[in-house]
Amino acid sequence: AVLEGEDEDKVMECHDYLMDNYSILNPPSSWTKKIVKELLIGYWPEKECFTFPHCNKNSEPFNIKCHKSKKGDTPHSITGHGQCVLYPLDLIQHYDFSKPILFAEGEKDTATLLSNGYQAVSSSTGALSLPKDLTSIADATMIRFVYDNDKGGRSGSIKRAQELKQRFSEMRIGVCHWSEGYPERYDVTDHLTASDENDLEE
User: Fold this and answer.
1) Cβ contacts of residue 151 below 8 Å, gap of 6+?
2) Which of 42, 123, 125, 162 to pair with 107, CA 20 to 30 A apart?
3) What sign does the CA torsion over 133, 163, 165, 113 have?
């Protein structure tokens, strides 16, 4: 169900707070304001975390995903609205499926990839699982997983790639591995934020 009342208001409240305090809150420099606005990314001051609304194909929000906070709170959805879905559903329908799509580990990295000109998706539950409903990417010809450089990301990317191949046998599916030398927990946002890195290696 789409958000209503205070929950619906919270989407724009958080988004407006981020845009009004952008330089102070210092979101990843790899994000562009254009993508932040398209995705309605926000900041929840009481929770001290960035927020990522999950919207349906009509751009109606049905959940707010709270990123891990400065206080140490783990990522979570607002009560009663969490579910495993593809993100961002409202943008995926406009992708060019003849070109590669990068499957990121989470919303933050998806925003980074979109900001840098890539077509990107993620699962709202990160590396843990794929949504049951994958119809919005069924026509993709190539998908590459670019999960984080940690145990969960390394094993999750292989497992999710295998699951995707079982469901779409004709689809070309790959896994990007971080080469030795990158630190543990390094991710796409770290990579595209680094001043000497402006592209992802093949």
Assistant:
1) none
2) 162
3) positive
Burial environment of residue 154 by CB neighbours within 10 A (0 to 12, 13 to 18, 19 or more): middle
Structure tokens of 46? 């009481």
The secondary structure of residue 130, as a DSSP letter, is -
pLDDT tens for residues 104-134? Answer: 999 999 999 999 999 999 999 999 899 999 9
Closest CA to 133 of 81, 86, 97: 86
**pTM of the predicted protein model:** 0.94
Residue 175's closest CA among 124, 100, 70, 63?
100
Name 64's bridge partners. Answer: 53
Q: From edge to edge, which strands make up the β-sheet containing 42-44?
A: 42-44, 49-55, 61-66, 76-77
- HSE toward the beta carbon, residue 102, CA cutoff 13 A: 25
Distance CA 113, CA 104 (A): 8
Residues 153, 105: Cα–Cα separation, whole Å: 7
Give the C-alpha separation, 182 to 177, whole Å: 11
**Exposure of 158 by Cβ count < 10 A (0-12 exposed, 13-18 middle, 19+ buried)?**
middle
